[in-house]
Design brief:
alpha/beta, seven-stranded parallel beta sheet, five-stranded parallel beta sheet, 12 helices
Length: 316
């Protein structure tokens, strides 16, 4: 039987075209509950599914082992750290993602955070609501050095968005692309150089053992006092406690986090207390345009799985 469980969380109207595609290809589908994603709930919901279009829920070894009919997990988005890829490989479950489709949306969120922090819009808003009036010391974005850590699709899109501001663009990546960098006017920089010379640092990395807590007390202390840090990649790349200490002690000027070490964040989340920190709930890619495109590509991957035996964007 051709069937798919849709766990990706988006407004139902965003699935209109995707549903048409599934019906046209005679693939049965059902919608899971994206708010009920504990291990037992996932096992129950996916018990009779051959394919899952996954959202941000965690497909652990235990879940995968107990979904006896599962043959493929298609992650609706770029990151797939929510899927135990090693377990999936051993169980013969294919894992795929939909890379690159949300690049513009995430880059636009990063730019929005940069501008809000650079011009201190959050602080102005709080001040005027509490009777304050008058300027704060702010700096223009024009002419500043932006350091991109990771130089994949999102970072390259952010480079395009920053170009009209006459920023000097530097980037670091373990897999460097000279042609792309030259086309975008981006210079290669070693990590320590980017940490120490950038006015803006934007993170665009997967969460790996080598990148976990890359931003910590040691690296924060390398940064300029006027530097602002943006993370729209994965929460675990930033040590949250060290970042809050750095903001409190004015080691750096501000930060924007769309992603967090624990999601959803707890009620006593320390960043709530930091006025120079902008927070959003892992929604950088959550535009209508990006959501519809990612959903449709995920459905394309489901169709490829059934028609060709494998999705196009396999990660295992």
């Amino acid at each position: 039987m051709r069937n798919v469980l849709i766990m990706a969380d988006a407004k139902r109207e965003y699935f209109t075209q995707a549903e048409r595609m599934l019906r046209k290809n005679r693939i049965e589908y059902s919608f899971g509950d994206p708010l009920d994603t504990g291990e037992e709930a996932l096992i129950r919901q996916a018990a009779h599914s051959a394919v899952v279009i996954a959202g941000s829920e965690r497909w652990t070894k235990n879940v995968l082992m107990n979904c006896k009919e599962l043959k493929a997990v298609i992650r609706c988005g770029t990151g797939y750290d929510g899927v135990d890829v090693n377990a999936a490989r051993k169980l013969g479950i294919q894992v795929a993602n939909t890379p690159g489709i949300n690049a513009y949306a995430v880059a636009e969120m990063a730019l929005s955070m940069i501008l809000c922090l650079q011009r201190k819009l959050k602080m102005y808003d709080c001040a005027i609501r509490n009777g304050g009036w008058g300027p704060l010391p702010v700096r223009e974005l024009r002419g500043k050095t932006a350091g991109l850590i990771g130089f994949g699709g999102i970072a390259r899109q952010l480079a395009r968005l920053l170009a009209p501001f006459d920023c000097r663009l530097k980037a670091y990546d373990v897999c460097w692309d000279d042609a792309a960098a030259e086309a975008l006017g981006v210079e290669f920089g070693e990590l320590e150089e980017i940490f120490s010379t950038s006015d803006i640092i934007s993170l665009h990395l997967p969460l790996l053992p080598s990148t976990k807590h890359m931003i910590c007390k040691e690296t924060l202390e390398m940064m300029k006092r006027e530097c602002i840090l943006i993370n729209t990649s994965r929460g675990g790349i930033v040590n949250t406690e060290d970042l809050c200490d750095a903001l409190r002690d004015q080691v750096i000027a501000g930060a924007g986090l769309d992603v967090h070490e624990l999601e959803p964040v707890p009620a006593d989340y320390r960043p709530f207390l930091e006025p120079r920190l902008i927070l959003s709930p892992h929604v950088a890619s959550a535009t209508r345009e990006a959501a519809e495109a990612m959903i449709q590509e995920a459905v394309n991957e489901v169709i490829r799985f059934y028609e060709e035996g494998a999705p196009a964007h396999l990660v295992c």
